[in-house]
Structure to design on (200 residues):
């Protein structure tokens, strides 16, 4: 197999803080669907650290899925599945039921339709009480945007005007409409948040 592994420098910095949240928020066992898995580095790390969980990576991009598959081949754990082709914005997903969903750094690097689709898909596939866990930078009412995040937001919009940091309250409103109740957020390094919703 050709080595098509990609590397995202931020992964090494944020994977352990995210893992600490996952240990608290995820069920002790079951099937976790990761949306927009990107390079696959998070998937490998989390699957290895959480051996009682089956980790299902996914991504709409063929090159990303090739990277995930290469990471899985080179370093993957027995509980890491082959990546699925999955577009969060699609009306149907290639899975019917999962025990949790994790989505890292997608909402701000995709059109708003992807967030709408993510919430709708989570509402369809999660059972009552199951978590949807988001990670990334957000805007929040009553809080000025940090200078680094403001600069990041401008750079994202320069790449694609449909991208940019989302208002957490707007995201939570969409989640609520799909039967996902906001539980809490955890402040993370580099002005990011982990946001946890539960299927009600």
């Amino acid at each position: 197999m050709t080595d098509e592994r990609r590397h995202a420098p931020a992964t090494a910095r944020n994977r352990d803080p995210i893992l600490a949240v996952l240990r608290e928020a995820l069920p002790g066992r079951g099937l976790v669907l990761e949306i927009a898995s990107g390079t696959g580095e998070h998937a490998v790390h989390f699957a290895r650290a959480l051996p009682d969980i089956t980790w299902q990576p996914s991504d709409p991009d063929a090159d990303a899925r090739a990277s995930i598959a290469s990471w899985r081949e080179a370093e993957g754990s027995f509980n890491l599945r082959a990546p699925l082709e999955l577009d969060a914005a699609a009306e149907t997903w290639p899975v019917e039921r999962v025990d949790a969903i994790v989505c890292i750094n997608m909402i701000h690097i995709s059109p708003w339709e992807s967030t709408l689709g993510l919430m709708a898909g989570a509402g369809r596939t999660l059972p009552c009480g199951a978590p949807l866990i988001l990670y990334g930078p957000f805007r929040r009412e009553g809080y000025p945007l940090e200078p680094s995040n403001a600069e990041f937001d401008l750079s994202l919009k320069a790449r694609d005007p449909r991208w940019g940091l989302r208002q957490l309250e707007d995201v939570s409103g969409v989640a609520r409409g799909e039967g996902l109740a906001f539980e809490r957020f955890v402040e993370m390094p580099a002005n990011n948040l982990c946001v946890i919703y539960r299927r009600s």
